[in-house]
Amino acid sequence: MRGLTKRISLLPIHAIVMCVTALISLISVFIPMFELFVQYKRQRLYSLFTLILDPDVFVQLREKSIDLDFRIFGAWMFTITLIISAAALTLALGFQLYSDNPVKKRWGCLSVLVLFALRLVIHVYTLSNFITDDMLNRNGMTVQRMYVVQTLTGNLLCVLLMIGIVASLYGALGLKMNMKLLAYPYILWICVFTILPLALILFRAFFAKTAGGYEFTTDGFKTLFANKTVTTSFYGAKVTLQEYFSVFLRSLDYAVWTTIGCLIFSYPLAYILAERTKRLHKTSSKLLLLFVLPMWMNTMLRTYAWRAFFAETGVFNTIMTNAGLISEPVMFLQNPIMSDIITKLVMVNDFLPFMVLPIYSVLVKIDSSLAQAAEDLGANKVQTFLKVIFPLSLPGVISGIQMVFMPSMTFYMIPDIISEGSKTTIGNTVQSFILNESTTYQQAGNVLSLILLIFVLITMGVLRNQDKEASGSGGMVL
Amino acid sequence: MRFLKRLVPNIYIALVLVFLYLPIVILIVYSFNSVPKSFLWGGFTLKNYTGLFSGSDGGELLESLLTTLKIAAIASVVSTLFGVVSCLGLAYMGKKMQNLLMSITYIPNVMPELVIGIAFMLLFSFLGVQKGQFTLVCAHIAFCVPFAILSIDPKIKQLDKNLSEAAMDLGATQWQTLRLVIIPEIMPGIVSSLMLTFTMSVDDYLISNFNVDSSTQTLPMKIYSMAKFGVNPKMNALTTILFLAVIVLLVLSNLSSVRQAKNKNK
């Protein structure tokens, strides 16, 4: 028995991945993976095992009942899958644990590879042949009205099987473990989930999706830059602007003021906290946690709480009237200028932690002997701050601005809730465009997201001098 | 004068705290409100808590809560695992390649969520994947991975390479070195990555909104759509409970780290 545990602890990583995959594919025979939909309603969940237990299905619909028979199909699929998975598990474990011959081990890996590939094929085959044409005809259904989809676990199983195939391929080729190899999946990942999506934004701004493929179009630009003006009030003044330019300007207004407000509030705060931390000779401040904690409260509900505070019958007015300080309620939200200020205030409230964290993490690292040296050389407090501390803290400020500026420009929920939907910002414009049924509007949404993307890249370029550790500091505090 | 010097910063801190916690206090107070969907105060009641998951609205809340927790659990575990593996590989790459990959990793970090959400939506439509829970999970994992890498990478950089070489010289296999030397050393990074990605996933609204079909709703989506017809005090009650759970977790983790520090000193 001790020999066995030792052998297990000596297993190479690819063998462990193989064994785990084989084990899970065996267990997955009993886990529901297929969902039967009849007339857009989910009727039943199936695993291959439940197909055996419960092969006949009668579903009572409003007009008629349907009757499905999975007896032969289910039995076949169940048996084949069970055999394949059990064989894969035995081969994976057996060759890796009880064979010392490297060539035999490689053949073992190859056979496991074949079995995994078969398992994947069977899974897909089961999915596509679950409902045959015969069943559809007998029940008078169409493919749209009766179909089977994979559940989340089914998708995960497919991903796992692919990982297993890669692991066994690795074993079959007899590759030596090289730590560098571990980074290659990440490179692939970056290509698929970072570069490709951003490239697609650029691509889709000019090309619309049609039934046959993609087609060049400038509809989006036409819709977006259409010669249509609206009159909006801006700081109390009435201005007539191009429709979407006014939306853009308003978002910019919110973003700029949110960033400035956050800076004004959080710089002294971060400074005080950093001084405290240094004075107490600690590495990080427990007090800082108090300023990060509000991030865990749902933003939307916090915004509604602000509305409850400022509403006509809300907290502020109730308390003030009862105390006799004001005779009639102050209409905060109905007054356009006041509601504008409140929106910005709420946004500052929401984004404050994102500004405090990076500034704090830079300030706390500044050696306090630098300030002492400056004072020894005759600088007064103000000069020391302006010439020594502030320039050194600039990376934190910049990454703070990065964390606040663009998100506050696109985060449309707060203006939406405070103004009850009367203030459109760039965020909900994009959202309503993209989720629109009409392709012209979808195209406009794609163009608008391209513009946003360019805007982000410009701000990134301007604020190039980013302190990398500071922007990743959000996680470090936890 | 000295007293005043101490006092002013403390007053400032207190004021900012009041500003930050005012909405949270209001939110918690309203969770005890007996009048639903109104800013009016109707009296103290506990029925929002006792009947949290009963009734049709409670059932919907429970369902979306479970969906959110399930997705957050998958996303945080998978992205952290992936982060650990990639960071290990990255550490053995050339300096130039490492810098290039890390600067690409920062791009999603500074992108607004809205743009990321749209980008993933376009990606899934390009790949021909039907929107649903699977795309939701994929999108969550995808936006969590950069954050996982950014929290684990500094710990790997701090790791002494001699340590793993020494372990191998002493006869440990690669797997044993990984399990017994490297993983314990980077554990704080892994824990903070798990917590960060979990909370990011739970709190996310914009990315989920673009990458899911109408049959699945996460808690933030549910709250946003329900709140349009008036804030249900049950939502306040639920978020209050979640908030308290976070506080308890943080206190516990702080206590254990304090205890560990004390043990080390002994």
Quickly count the domains of chain A: 3
Give me the CATH fold name of the largest domain in chain A.
MetI-like fold
Q: So what's the overall shape of chain A? A: extended
Greatest interface and its residue counts?
Answer: A-B, 104 and 95 residues
Report the uncertain regions of chain A. 466-478
CATH 2nd-level architecture of the largest domain in chain A: Orthogonal Bundle
CATH architecture of the domain at 53-233 in chain B: Orthogonal Bundle
Q: Would you count the extended β strands of chain A for me? A: 9
Q: What is the averaged pLDDT score of chain A?
A: 82
Distance between the termini of chain B: 41 Å
Examine the coordinates and then state which fold CATH places here, giving the name of the CATH topology of the domain at 53-233 in chain B: MetI-like fold
Beta-strand percentage of chain A? 5-15%
Major sheet description of chain B: none
Number of strands of chain B: 0
- CATH class bucket of the largest domain in chain A: Mainly Alpha
In N-to-C order, the SSE pattern of chain A is HHEEHEEHHHEHHEEHEEHHHHHHHHHHHH
Order of helices and strands of chain B: HHHHHHHHHHH
